[in-house]
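Summary for the steering committee. The consortium agreed at its last meeting that each partner would contribute one worked example illustrating the joint modelling workflow. Our contribution is presented below. We chose a case with several input lines so that the handling of multiple components could be demonstrated. No manual editing was applied between input and output; the record is shown as generated.
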Amino acid sequence: MTRTPRADFWFSILLTAFGAAVTFESWRMPRLENLGIDPMSAPGLTPGLLGVVLTGLGLALFARGVRAEPDPEPVETEAGWGRFAVTLALCLGYALVLLGRLPFWAATAIFVAAFVLAFTWRERPAWRTGLVGVALALVVAMTVTLLFERVFLVRLP
Amino acid sequence: MDALISLATAIGQVATPVSLFNVAWATLLGMCVGMMPGLTATLGIALLTTLTFRMGAGDAILILICMYVGAIYGGSRTAILLNIPGTPANAASALDGFPLARAGRAGEAMGLATVGSFFGSIIGLILLALIAPQLAEFGLKFQSYEFFWLAVFGVVISGRLTAMDDPLKGWIAGFLGLFLAQVGQEGIHAHQRFSYGSVDLAGGFGLLPALVGAFGFAEILCVMKQPAYRTVRDMGDRVLPRLRDVINRWWTILRSGLLGTVMGIVPGVGEDMGAWVSYAAARRASREPGAFGKGATEGLIAAEAGNNAAVPGAIIPVLTLAVPGSAPAAVLLAAMFIHGVRPGPLIMIENPDFIMQVAAMLFWASVAILVFGLALTRPMLFVLRVRREHLMPIVFVLCVVGAFAIASRVFDVWVMLGFGILGFALRQMNYPMAPLVLGIVLGDILDKNFRRGMVLSDGSFEPFVTRPISAVLAALTIVTILLGLGPVRRAISEFRRRRD
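What follows is the complete predicted structure of the assembly.
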């Protein structure tokens, strides 16, 4: 049935709480009766219904999680989660920190070079790895900037 | 017959030099996107929507359809050569494609996959031309009650079929999607829901940034977490399939084309189920079912004809009911709205030629995959040699630009990041993405029609279950839920076991 029982158990608690919060917030929403609006078209009606359904689904997942057997041996390696963490940090750093503070082309060049080097720095010869990373970064930054701004007339962040 | 004549006329009209040029590059780009593990048809269409939104509606939609067809087909290459489906729709193709490649018949496998995809797509587009006008006319009978049930049924059936082992997770994803669509200004009284004073949240979550996140950023995180895939050097056998091999498989192709189209029509189910259902039907009908999974050419053709037939199939409800048949079709639907085309039951009144134009666009995209698929097999192997460490940062840059460019809002970049992390977490816990996407698309339809229906019925739920079409949709929804419940499934398996 399920291959991630422990994650399901914690997610079920989160989902049930979320569903209950949605229902409560929907109940609190104004019903706009002072504007002469039919109560059956109140803004909170559909979200309230969805909140109830989500709570029910969360409880069903919880009931199953309680009965489920412990997780099978994890297949992922620590190296996999390490690569994930580096990727996430680089992507968030680019989107939330670099963009807006630097010109788009410069932020993009730094991000691409950092990404390539972060995953290939152990490869030899080192000068070639570095050169490929920097060259790719410059080509991508220039091409994307020119292509989007000049050809497709799209505004860049 | 009239429909087929209209289709032939439309095919001629679409064949202008500019359009054929667009068909060529967009299909080729789609094939490259499909071939690269980590890039899906949904992401390809979402990013191209950004690039084409200043173009005319006809050119833009043609390009997006070519990307769609090309990507679903292109994924078969990766499935055959690397045993990694290029897109989720090609998972069934890997079962027999990869054993064929290991046996030194990679070229033959790619040739047969190409022909299967071509004919599957052609069958699908003919059915689109025949069915869509009728379905649009039928859709005119839909009122608020029916649209409410259509939204609920779409999420329930999509959740059931995209998570066959664990329908509960499919339904959670679907209802979560429906809720996410409730954030922001609602469509009846313009009241801001769940925005808590934020101007950005009042605008709601944009569909395209959400999809770029769920299918782009989430995929980047998944790909980088996996061990590296090995690259392909070459294959030596012939690519052009023998005519008798194709003729001998005509019934498999026809059956898979029909099944694929039907699976495409079912809301939110899409190409992967088109391939799996066609594959299962081919195995049941085969004289040698034991050969399936070990390099049966019939299985490969069935899977590829099925997934490519599901592309026109998934566009049928987009055009006639404004309900997407799959995740890529959801982006196509959003792109149509951006370009001022209003799909839905009124399409045959407001824009009667549009259905045939779309079928004609699908025809030229199918021709392009046949030509490029057979002629450029060896040059396209180069695409598979691109390393993920070089490709993924470029994809992320495109995701950021794609999310930002439609409305020039930094908030959309945050939405993309948020949905990417949510999508990654849900995937790690084996939640399907298609019901989530369908839920986001159908959330507005559900909300408006539920409340309108309740107002019209003066607070009574009776018309929701007594009007004929509503009653059928309600019954289908309940049956789908019952069939997905653990005790019912166990009882059915026990009954089957005893019967056998």
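Chain A has five helices and no strands. Chain A has two domains: 5-67, 78-151.
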